[in-house]
Amino acid sequence: MENKEVLGHVAVLLTILIWGTTFISTKVLLQFFTPVEILAVRFLLGYCALYIIYPRRLKGMSFKQELICLFAGMCGICLYYLCENIALSYTLASNVGVLICLAPLFTVILSRFFKLKKEKIGISFCIGCVIAFGGVVLISFDNQSVEFNFIGDCLAVLAALIWAIYSLLTKKLGEFGINTILLTRRVFFYGLIFILPLSFVFDFSLNQDLLFKPEVYFNFLFLGLGASALCFVTWNFAVKILGAVKTDVYIYAVPVITVITSVLILHEVVTVKILIGLALTLLGVFIAEEHGLRYIVFLFLYKKN
Question: Domain named EamA: which ranges (predicted)?
Fold first, then answer.
């Protein structure tokens, strides 16, 4: 594995580690603000942070490149989070957690539909995805009866499809050889433009006094600077190096991080079913990578001999 690929894996692991803990911050902020208000403040902070870190202007963009940035902002910043948040108001969080993990499958389908030859998909990837998805199901539906809600579940599936589209658009942007921070900032800009009209539809009335509460501004800083500014740059960097398909596989690890965080911070109880789910998810993610299945077969044969 080349050093560049190692950096790609490290970048996506860092991203997933942070994204897996964002539910706590969002849960706290939902006590004070609506989902659209949280979304707007979060990405506005992220945009400002990226501008401070790298204040250069993005010049020389073609119309095609601007158009891809616009659609990436619409999908990855606005529509994905909007569909996910609305889905949570209709259906169980466990349903959303599982259905969002359809994103890697949609990424594969779309990459094949658009004939993206650089996105390699082998038997290891397919086996790993099935195992990881099974692990996510065990984690999400632990000690729960499965309930379905047509609107909520459809919105969750739509969110997964939108994220797959965003990943492929990000891969295309990475091929232009433009600075990742500048591209991410431009995507944030277009995302905020699409969020703006939603503020009128969803009764945007941000209470500025609440922003000075420690539990509010600390969580907003975490979501804005960490989960948005940092993570979208590292995610886009990973997609640029590894490809959309390989990077999206790591989405399966988000529930794993969420469970670990719940145990450490919220002191939630871990059952045997969750432990099995965690093991299967991590095993699936490992196998889905290019050489994962080879390593496992090698170790099995080595121990047998």
Answer: 7-140, 151-287
Helices (H), the chain: 3-19, 22-29, 35-53, 63-72, 80-90, 93-100, 103-113, 123-140, 150-174, 180-201, 214-221, 231-242, 244-248, 254-265, 272-288, 292-304
Read off the tokens for 198: 């939603």
Check the CA dihedral 12-87-225-180 and report its sign: positive
Q: What is the mean pLDDT of residues 278-289?
A: 79
The rounded distance, in Å, linking the Cα atoms of 178 and 173 is 8
Residue type at position 31: Q
Q: In whole angstroms, what is the distance from residue 200 CA to residue 194 CA?
A: 12
Give pLDDT tens digits for 224-257. Answer: 999 999 999 999 999 989 888 888 888 888 878 8
User: How many Cα atoms within 13 Å fall on the side-chain side of residue 20?
Assistant: 23
Which residue matches tokens 């690890």? 253
Give which of 294, 251, 302 is closest to 96, Cα–Cα.
Answer: 251
